[in-house]
Design a protein that fits this description.
73% helix, 10 helices, 405 residues, mainly alpha
Length: 405
């Protein structure tokens, strides 16, 4: 059998000799401690009995004992040093070997390889984040498209409704203003009231106030092509149908309207008071009929509006956080604090913290503040890593520490 040569920090013979002597050295040191304690105990009992050192002779004995104790310690140290030094050398040799391949040692190959793995992991994470950000923007753009379609239709409906109401009032006033003197002419105006609505001309004054975040002009133009022409065509049809319906109602009422006017004219010749009453009643009937027509139209319009608003009620795809920072005072007046604080509610600590931060915290460096807030920072980091809860602030940044597993 061949014996393998090893590089030991000490020769084998020396190692064997030191180890063989170790039990004897340990016994000698144990005996030295026993004798030293025995001699010291005699002195200590004497002094404790007297309550103090009460004479020079006793004091000299104590001084000599302390000197000899130091000598004994030195002798013990000299005897055991070869053993402890040998063990230290051996332990160092083992730890040096381990450290040479330990990934925690920055000079080891494993550690250098770990650096490359960390870089690769960071690259992969960056790529993943880029993909997630691209997808987030794509989804946000799709949401914005839906919002814009609904908002555009709703805004156009409001713009059209305002115009229709003006025309409806104009037609109603024309019918309400009929008299015997103008009846033939103005009743014809009612019958001839235009039902055509030039949406293209009217919507030239329409302004689109939607604020875009993600959509580009081609997408915006495409949505306008999808929404605007069909909606304008629908408005033209609605205007024609609704105005025609009002005209039909008024035309049906023209004969009774003439009779009412003639009856009131006859009453005026005989009884002015009765004529005024009849005239007031006729106005009330017409007002009620107008209100009924308007209520029906409003209900229909509201139903259409609710449909559009339901589309536009999607949640916003981003939140804005307005952060404000209070300026710390440049100097704090000196004050002698003689009171003690007793916090009666957990919320009180917020006020304590606010006073501390304005009075002292604002003057500390970031490094000093990190030390003071170490426990809180650790808590917030745990919330971020375990629960994905983040502080949303312009003053707080989350930095990725990448380490491959």
């Amino acid at each position: 059998m061949t014996t393998q040569t090893t590089n030991l920090p000490i020769k084998v013979e020396e190692f064997t000799n030191i180890i063989q002597n170790a039990p004897g050295i340990l016994q000698r040191n144990q005996k030295s401690v026993t004798n030293c304690n025995k001699a010291g105990k005699t002195l200590l009992d004497t002094i404790e009995g007297n309550g103090e050192i009460d004479n020079d002779e006793l004091d000299d004995k104590v001084a000599e004992y302390i000197r000899l104790s130091k000598v004994t310690v030195n002798n013990m140290n000299e005897r055991r040093s070869p053993i402890t030094q040998l063990l230290t050398k051996i332990a160092k040799e083992f730890t040096s070997l381990e450290n040479e391949i330990n990934p925690e040692n920055k000079n080891s190959i494993a550690s250098k390889l770990q650096v490359f793995r960390n870089k690769y992991a960071a690259k992969k994470l960056a790529e993943q984040k880029a993909r997630e950000e691209t997808e987030r923007k794509r989804q946000a753009a799709e949401n914005e498209k839906s919002e814009y379609r609904a908002d555009l239709a709703l805004s156009m409906q409001k713009y059209y409704s305002s115009y229709f109401e003006d025309k409806a009032v104009e037609l109603s006033n024309l019918f309400a203003g009929l008299t015997l003197e103008n009846f033939d002419v103005d009743s014809q105006k009612v019958a001839d009231f235009p039902t055509e609505y030039n949406a293209g001309e009217h919507f030239k004054g329409f302004k689109d106030g939607f604020r875009f975040v993600y959509l580009e002009k081609p997408d915006i133009d495409k949505i306008k092509v999808e929404v605007v022409p069909p909606f304008m065509k629908e408005c033209e049809k609605k205007f024609r149908d609704d105005i025609q319906s009002m005209k039909d109602d008024f035309i049906l009422l023209l004969p009774s309207k003439r009779k009412d006017l003639e009856r009131i004219a006859e009453l005026k010749k005989k009884d002015t008071e009765a004529a005024a009453l009849a005239e007031a009643q006729a106005r009330i009937r017409e007002a009620e009929e107008n209100q009924k027509r308007e209520a029906e139209r409003k209900a229909k319009e509201q139903e259409e509006k609710l449909k559009l608003e339901a589309q536009a009620s999607q949640a916003d795809i981003f939140n804005s956080f307005n952060q404000t920072a209070a300026a710390a005072p440049t100097s704090i007046p000196d004050a002698k604090v003689t009171k003690k604080i007793k916090v009666n509610n957990a919320k009180g600590f917020l006020e304590v913290y606010q006073m501390w931060f304005i009075g002292e915290g604002a003057t500390l460096s970031i490094e000093e503040l990190e030390k003071v807030h170490k426990k809180m920072l650790t808590f917030c980091e745990k919330k971020a890593n375990k629960d994905s809860e983040f502080i949303k602030s312009a003053f707080v940044e989350y930095v990725d520490e990448v380490k491959a597993k």
